[in-house]
Amino acid sequence: MRNIAILCSGGDVSGMNPALKHFVEYALQKGLTPFFIYDGYEGLIDNNIKKVSYCDVAGIITRGGTKIGSARSKRFTQKQYRIIAKQNLDALGIEMLVVLGGDGSFRGLDIFYKETSIKFCGIPATIDNDINGTDYSLGVDTALNIIKTSIDAIRDTASSFKRAFVIETMGRNCGYLALVSHLTSGSELCLIPEREYDLKSYEESFKEQIKNGRRYFIAIVSEGIKQDSSEIAEWFEERIGMESRVSILGHVQRGGNPTIYDRLMAYKFVTHAVNGLLQGKDESVICYTKSGFEFKSIEEVTSKTKELDTELLSYLDNQ
Q1: Strand 189-191 to strand 119-124: parallel, antiparallel, or no bridges (unpaired)?
Q2: 84 and 59, same structural domain?
Q3: Residues of the chain falling short of pLDDT 50
Q4: In whole angstroms, what is the distance from residue 112 CA to residue 28 CA?
Q5: Which is the catalytic residue, given 12, 110, 128, 262?
Q6: CATH number of residue 79's parent domain
Q7: Known catalytic membership, residue 128
Q8: Same domain, 130 and 33
């Protein structure tokens, strides 16, 4: 039997556990022997690798995070440790590797392939949804639903106390989470790194809205904007004249029970990844676009910064 392994690298996302479950089940269905590599590339170096079966994934589909752990490995950037990692794979006869992670994880994987010829397929998995070449990354839907629940709850207290709330989402330098949350929550202000903004341009409109009876404001901002959320809150108090609070959602966005959509996407991503490896696609990332699932090269995925969908941005520009 041929051996295949899976690991998680970088930030965890809800959807990784459903992916692990299907990986084991589908590998066995295809006559492969599945292995888990624990704690990302660190586990690959430390030989923390285990052959697994159905009992190892029973009941994990409902859980956020990743059963096998994840990590950011500085050691894997050094060739001496990549050599050790390859030796560990060779000792177990593992010839194919599936990696759940982001562009940094894929860049490390590309170097590893060029040095060792280990066959691999990357699966985009980051709530930031900032991987070029794919419209969707595993974990995004669950994160958006966590944000939705938080905004809906904050709106209740904002309206009760006549306050402005500045709600900060994650996303690094990508405003996807903030933008989609804004469009689907009915918030009054959205600030993202992809768009320049001038708070003064909102002052007249917001003051007029207060005169006409508005009791509260919800502002959704991405962590990558040029100002701290506290500065936006100060602007509401000093220029708009409304008491304000800041809610930084933080890592709560990464956790939670995986949504149906993320469970389904995990199933599809893993199926395509394993099939691709069996069909001779030895160095690719499986991406999801408007055209469906596509295998793309590491170079295409990591060569440039992802741009937000122009249609979504047009909705923001028209407000």
Answers
A1: unpaired
A2: yes
A3: none
A4: 26
A5: 128
A6: 3.40.50.450
A7: yes
A8: yes
